[in-house]
Design brief:
By secondary structure, this protein is of the alpha/beta class. Among the domains are: 181 residues, FAD/NAD(P)-binding domain (3-Layer(bba) Sandwich); 93 residues, Guanine Nucleotide Dissociation Inhibitor, domain 1, CATH 1.10.405. Helices cover 34% and strands 22% of the residues. The chain has 14 helices and 19 strands. The strands form four sheets. Strands 1, 2, 9, 10, 11, 12, 13 and 19 form an eight-stranded mixed sheet that branches. The chain has a seven-stranded mixed sheet with strand order 7-6-15-16-17-14-18. The chain has a two-stranded antiparallel sheet with strand order 3-4. Strand 11 and strand 12 form a beta hairpin. Helix 1 runs parallel beside helix 14 and helix 11 crosses helix 13. It binds flavin-adenine dinucleotide. Flavin-adenine dinucleotide binds next to helix 1, strand 2 and helix 14.
Length: 442
């Protein structure tokens, strides 16, 4: 590409999830001209709060937020947004040894404690500054190399305790915990002061009142970016002078910098010339662990509030009551393998719920299969062994005028809305500093 005195814009941001929207807002506030290209017909990416055929608006993607998440919390405070507590549960079901068990929270917790303590007890030692995981401590390096379930086997738990721990981590990974690293568990617990109970709370206890769409609007407010929906980017050419972004409709936009916010599992969906470094490509090829589904269900009648857990041997790893709806109950569930459960098939979902509760009748389902969606290819980022040692720093390293940003590349809450905000804001800061320097030298 030849030197261009006036490119079409200063920055092109590819992707309008939380990372892209935060980067666009910060950059435009700093005076940069920004074009944000989003392939979908809406902003929000892997968050999507919308009216549901089940009778009320529902969150199809990212949902739960917490005050332990600093970037989310700053936006919530600035916008005056409130939390909405999730409903409580009165009974817990879990599958272990092929049998359904049922108890109150206290008894269930007795089975959970040894596995959670064993897997997260060293969190603060491994990650003393959890928002700055690199350079790795010796312990973090060892945990990064160790598959989570290998560590679990070393804990000397009873078979039931092991299966209960496996279920909880199948839910966290939204995939097989055999594929995840022990460091992933330590890192999340470290973000919660080393307390796995707070970690569970952060994962499930609160939503944004009015939906994640309100948080998205709050982040977007004040942005002067030129947002173009329904535009799929297919290629990026870059050199020392600038970038050229090629769209599926053949249009091209030139800019000084580009930010790619694609999830790790679809990083190869855009042709970058010259190509991204071998380290980035290898990280993209290995991908991350989550390959599951989230599904909402309407069940006939009122159901006593419950939550249920199962390991990755089952199509659903968690199901629980969320709302009452005109005399019926709305349930939320997660399954570890999108390929093993058709979330649009009410009969398949019904059968999966009956693994715990044969009497429940599911009358309708609502879901978006993010793993099967070519614009996401995953649900939320969860690290494979070796990710911290071999991939994170490289994924965060800009290549000339090309930067990756997104929840998958965050230093703190990677895999969360908070991580998307953190990463998008970091990219914006780095680019606005670079633009300032370029202005001085031009
Ligand atoms: C089912 C589910 C449940 C979750 N639960 C939670 C939760 O409870 N709490 C939490 O904090 N997080 C949760 N997450 C994770 C959270 O939603 C994500 O980490 C976060 O939203 C990622 O934001 P992002 O901007 O990094 O990526 P994305 O939201 O994926 O944004 C990337 C954008 O790029 C667009 N794009 C992709 N390719 C192209 C292209 N070629 N051209 C143009 N645009 C393109 C996509 O359409 C997308 O809009 C959940 C995610 C899912 C799917």
């Amino acid at each position: 590409m030849k030197e261009q005195p006036t490119p079409d814009t200063d920055v092109v941001i590819v992707g309008g999830g939380f990372a892209g929207v935060a980067a666009a807002r910060d950059l435009s506030r700093s005076g940069a001209r920004v074009v944000l290209l989003e392939a979908r017909d809406r902003l929000g990416g892997r968050t999507w709060f919308r009216e549901s055929p089940l009778g009320r608006p529902l969150e199809l993607g990212g949902t739960f937020v917490h005050w332990l998440q600093p970037h989310v919390w700053a936006e919530m405070t600035a916008a005056g947004l409130e939390l909405e507590p999730s409903p409580g549960v009165e009974e817990i079901y879990w599958l272990a040894g092929g049998e359904v068990h049922r108890a109150g929270m206290e008894e269930y917790t007795r089975h959970v404690v040894p596995g959670m303590d064993g897997l997260t007890g060293l969190a603060r030692e491994a990650f003393p500054q959890p928002h700055r995981p690199l350079p790795l401590t010796e312990l973090a390096r060892e945990a990064d190399r160790t598959p989570l379930t290998r560590r679990l086997e070393q804990l000397g738990l009873t078979p039931e305790e092991t299966e209960v721990a496996r279920s909880r981590w199948t839910l966290s990974f939204n995939g097989s915990p055999d594929e995840g690293s022990w460091a992933q568990a330590l890192r999340l617990a470290a973000l919660c002061g080393g307390d796995w109970r707070m970690m569970s709370e952060a994962n499930r206890a609160y939503t944004v009142a009015g939906g994640t769409g309100r948080l998205l609007e709050a982040v977007h407010r004040g942005s002067t970016a030129d947002v173009r929906l329904g535009v799929t980017v297919t290629a990026v050419h870059h050199d020392a002078h600038g970038v050229e972004v090629v769209c599926a409709d053949g249009s091209r936009i030139t800019a000084r910098h580009v930010v790619l916010t694609l999830p790790l599992n679809i990083l190869d969906a855009i042709d970058v010339h010259p190509p991204l470094s071998p380290g980035k490509q290898a990280a993209g090829e290995r991908g991350q662990v989550s390959s599951g589904v989230k599904v909402w269900m309407r069940a006939r009648g009122r159901i006593r509030p419950f939550i249920a857990f199962a390991s990755d041997d089952y199509p659903l790893t968690m199901a629980g009551t969320e709302y009452e709806q005109d005399g019926d109950t709305i349930l939320l569930a997660f399954g570890p393998h999108s390929a093993k459960l058709d979330v649009t098939d009410v009969h398949a979902v019904q059968a999966a719920v009956r693994q715990w509760r044969p009497e429940i009748e599911i009358t309708a389902v609502d879901a978006h299969d993010w793993t099967a969606d070519p614009l996401s290819g995953e649900t939320w980022f969860m690290a494979r062994p070796g990710h911290l040692e071999h991939a994170l720093a490289e994924l965060q390293r800009p290549e000339g005028r090309v930067r990756l940003a997104g929840g998958d590349y965050a230093s703190g809450w990677a895999g969360y809305i908070d991580g998307a905000l953190e990463s998008g804001r970091r990219a914006a800061r780095e680019i606005s500093t670079a633009l300032e320097k370029e202005k001085e030298t031009s």
